[in-house]
Design goal:
Elements: E1 19-20, E2 27-29, E3 39-46, E4 59-63, H1 66-78, E5 85-92
Length: 95
């Protein structure tokens, strides 16, 4: 037979408090700037050069504007190999 006792647990949850552009550093949305619904770009980059260790090359980035996105994209592809990938998703900041 198992005996149980009730204990209090404190659970911490990470919730987003702001989104910042990885190119220029501007605040994209959330409650800090009051711009709920502002459009931004979520990007995932990486490459397949390292075989099973390629997962270490994956980066998740956010960009506030098309200009910041294309500037980063041009820099990224001018300095990568043929196995690089760049996934772009358009999203909206929520409050």
């Amino acid at each position: 037979m198992k005996e149980y006792k009730r204990v209090e647990q404190v659970v911490f949850k990470d919730i987003p408090s702001g989104i910042y552009c990885d190119k220029c550093g501007k605040t994209i949305g959330m409650e800090q700037c009051g711009q709920a619904g502002k459009r931004y770009y979520e990007v995932i980059t990486g490459h397949n050069n390292w075989g099973n260790s390629s997962h270490e090359s994956i980066k998740n980035l956010d960009f506030c504007s098309y200009e910041c996105l294309t500037e980063h994209q041009n820099d990224y592809f001018s300095n990568t190999s043929g196995s690089a990938y760049y996934e772009i998703k358009l999203d909206y900041a929520k409050q």
